[in-house]
Design goal:
With 159 residues, this protein is mainly α. The chain has a domain of 72 residues: Arc Repressor Mutant, subunit A (Orthogonal Bundle), CATH 1.10.10.10. It contains 6 helices and 3 strands. A 3-stranded antiparallel sheet has the order 1-3-2. α1 runs antiparallel to α4.
Amino acid sequence: MDSEQLSATFAALADPTRRAILERLAEGDATVGELAEPFAMSLPAISKHLSVLERAGLVAKDRDGQRRNCRITATPLKSATSWLEEYRRHWEANLDSLDAYLNRIHHPGDEGRRLEPPGTEGTEPPGTEGTDLPTTQAAATSATTQAAATSATSQEKQP
């Protein structure tokens, strides 16, 4: 897909009304009047949105006598998805490399193993020893208990 077509596709998709029109057309063909029904705007305003979608290649209009039927065209969406997929793979690879690097520098000798943040391996938060609570819930409970104790202590010290 060329850069101009890709830009037109993303520009057309940037507007929530045009995205709603595409969602409706994904259910099946519709006339301009049918597409305008859910919106509080005039037929000329809907027609302008449809023109933007047509220029981007996302919608095609057919004449059936007096009726103008609109239908969705998937090719530009597939091309935009392919373009995005290339960048998704690129960033996933970069983030995986960053994750591996950070694990390697924080935990030498433990390559390949997903590690907990430093200092949390196999430890229970204070005040939760012997409980069956998951670690994060136990940590929250411990923090709440400590906050309550601190609050009670500070209230006792007030004159």
